[in-house]
UniProtKB/TrEMBL annotation:
The chain crosses the membrane at residues 20-47, 89-112, 180-209. InterPro entries: AAA+_ATPase (IPR003593), ABC1_TM_dom (IPR011527), ABC1_TM_sf (IPR036640), ABC_transporter-like_ATP-bd (IPR003439), ABC_transporter-like_CS (IPR017871), P-loop_NTPase (IPR027417), Type_1_exporter (IPR039421). Residues 372-605 form the ABC transporter domain. It comes from Flavobacterium rakeshii. GO terms for cellular component: plasma membrane. It comes from the Bacteria. This is ATP-binding cassette domain-containing protein.
Length: 609
């Protein structure tokens, strides 16, 4: 229940629907009780000869005798109507009254469900939006420790589970308890002794039902974790299908997925079987209570003669009327236990602390005037430092290239400049201002990013390129494509810049995708450009076109280039050679070649013209 309290804040915008739902649920519960009470005077007058002698109009003697007054008044009305219009007319009127009461009951039930629909779906929408917003806001480091499939499972099936549980808990606290309450009040009005006798057995049946649900939350939690796991396998399979097929690994992944779904199958069976047991168990216990009523109530009617037959028949109907809401409460309590596990997983995401946020009073800056300075940085992802006492200055308008073996810390510099990660020791400054003092939106607005993996989206070329500048004109888009050497193939596509490029841009070649990524950065036109091994995954021809595009883009711009292929950075103003998180050499290409050090060895290892 603790997690549901946190979920309930999402219901506040829809509280008017909750109030209307409660209003119609109250009416539903009231008409549910009255529809059975309406049988009493009819049965009494039509089948009890003694009551047919009652012709005197009853007198109202206060609220304590309201039930008796209504019964006597109805008997008086029926007797007079029968005498005046005949018993068939009276019977028709009473049947019409009962039909109207049942109609009103179901009418109120419909409107209660009608209004709760807006509440349920509104909470579902807002909850999903909030999780998505939080997912996008969380730092990159969070997703290095979490499976993407698990996140997908939380935003889809877990939120849906909460929606069902949300409805259940509203029924649990409003409609069904009110139905039981009004029914019990009516039962007390008919016979206090019989009702007290019956109520000795209700807590016992409730206790027996509660035993069944003790382990449900634990099992549900395991099932939801397992669901996240096999969704992760599916996501990885779709992303790595070429590798799986190329290494004949279909059986390995098929077995992995099958084992996970088998575990989910077994857990789901346990949960649903236990959940299914709730309804028949509560119904059986309810029938046991009805049997006790028949035994004790029959004794009161036939032996003690303290209860009329008509009241006893109505009383049995009322007692049975408790069974339906009791079963619903039983089911709802199971759903709440099951949903609580889902709510716990959703709340974990929503309450996840985000260490990389804009500070209070953060600086908004949209110009770059002097230099980027990296001062005495020590940085680690886990235990061991990736960067060690690292310092570097990147003057405005210059191109600085970072080279070195894999694992030397090159890409970490890009992560720190864009503040995907925060430094633990030292500082990164732009124009003398620590990047932590900028608003995230302002900081990243100063930078364009082209990564090794060309990250494109299942949309048109136009929309992919306009990502950094949504208000760009078609002429600006085409100009950016030309600078990136991409317009030559885009203009030949069936719909030009409005061609959809498929999932992750898979309709295009690697070189084409990378040139579109460059065009996207060109259109954004940031003062600082970060290129993270932008050509390392390309063939020679594509590399030549992409390299030319990069050179076009970097003109009159400050650039930090992380390079794997050293042929692409020979024109850099400063080449920084890194090894195990430290700078071992720096200078121009010619200066470093003359030193005959680490850089020259790296160049010698690569073949280029």
């Amino acid at each position: 229940m603790d997690y549901f309290k946190k979920i309930f804040r999402f219901a506040k915008p829809y509280k008017r629907y909750a109030y209307l739902n409660i209003f119609f649920n109250i009416l539903y519960a009231l008409f549910s009780a009255l529809s059975f009470v309406a049988f009493i005077p009819m049965i009494t007058v039509l089948f009890d000869e003694e009551k047919q002698a009652v012709v005197k109009q009853p007198t109202y003697e206060g609220i304590t005798k309201l039930i008796s007054y209504l019964e006597d008044y109805m008997a008086f009305y029926i007797k007079n109507a029968s005498d005046e219009y005949g018993p068939q007319y009276t019977l028709s009127v009473m049947i019409a009254l009962i039909i109207v009461l049942f109609l009103l009951k179901n009418f109120c039930n419909y409107w209660a469900m009608y209004f709760i629909t807006f509440l349920r779906n509104g909470v579902l929408k807002d909850l999903r939006n909030e999780i998505y917003h939080k997912t996008v806001a969380l730092p990159i480091s969070f997703f290095s420790e979490k499976r993407k499939g698990d996140i997908m499972s939380r935003i889809s099936s877990d939120v849906l589970e909460i929606q069902h549980s949300f409805l259940s808990i509203l029924e649990l606290i409003v409609r069904e308890p009110l139905t039981i309450l009004f029914t019990i009040i009516t039962m007390f009005a008919i016979s206090v002794n019989l009702t007290l006798f019956v109520f000795v057995f209700i807590p016992i049946s409730g206790w027996l039902i509660s035993i069944l649900g003790k382990s449900l939350k634990k099992q549900s939690d395991k099932a939801q974790i397992e669901q996240g796991y096999f969704i992760s396998i599916l996501e990885e399979t779709l992303g790595g299908l070429k590798v799986i097929k190329g290494f004949n690994a279909e059986k390995h992944f098929d077995d992995k997925f099958s084992k996970s779904t088998t575990r989910f199958f077994e857990l789901s069976n346990k949960i649903l079987n236990r959940q299914s047991l709730a309804s028949p168990a509560s119904e059986f216990l309810g029938i046991v209570v009805i049997a006790i009523i028949l035994w004790y109530g029959g004794h009161m009617v036939l032996v003690e003669e303290t209860l009329s037959g008509a009241k006893f028949l109505a009383y049995i109907g009322l007692a049975y009327n408790i069974l339906t809401p009791a079963k619903a409460i039983s089911r709802a309590s199971y759903n709440v236990k099951k949903g609580n596990a889902a709510a716990e997983r959703v709340i974990e995401i929503l309450e996840q602390e985000n260490p990389i946020v804009s500070k209070q009073g953060a600086i908004e800056k949209n110009t770059f005037e002097k230099e980027i300075t990296i001062e005495n940085i020590n940085f680690r992802y886990e235990d061991e430092n990736v960067l060690k006492e690292f310092s570097l200055t990147v003057p405005k308008g210059k191109t600085v290239a970072l080279v070195g073996q894999s694992g030397s810390g090159k890409s970490t510099i890009a992560n720190l400049l864009t503040r995907f990660y925060d430094v633990q020791e030292g500082s990164v400054k732009i124009d003398g201002i620590d990047v932590k003092d900028f608003s995230l939106h302002s900081l990243r607005g100063l930078m364009g990013l082209v990564t090794q993996d060309s990250i494109l989206f299942n949309d048109t070329i136009r929309n992919n390129i306009m990502l950094g500048k949504p208000d760009a004109t078609e002429e600006e888009v085409i100009a950016a494509l030309k600078i990136a050497n991409a317009y030559e193939f885009v203009k030949d596509l069936p719909k030009g810049i409005d061609t959809n490029i498929g999932d992750s841009g898979n309709k295009l070649s690697g070189g084409q995708k990378q040139r579109l990524s460059i065009a996207r950065a060109v259109l954004k036109n940031p003062p600082i450009m970060i290129l993270d091994e932008a050509t390392s995954a390309l063939d020679t021809e594509s590399e030549r076109l992409v390299q030319q595009a990069l050179e076009n883009m970097m003109k009159n711009r400050t650039s930090v280039v992380i390079a794997h292929r050293l042929s692409t950075i020979q024109k850099a103003d400063n080449i920084v050679v890194m090894k195990k998180g430290r700078i071992v050499e720096q200078g121009t290409h010619d200066e470093l070649m003359d030193k005959d050090g680490t850089y020259k060895k790296l160049v010698a290892m690569q073949s280029f013209e």
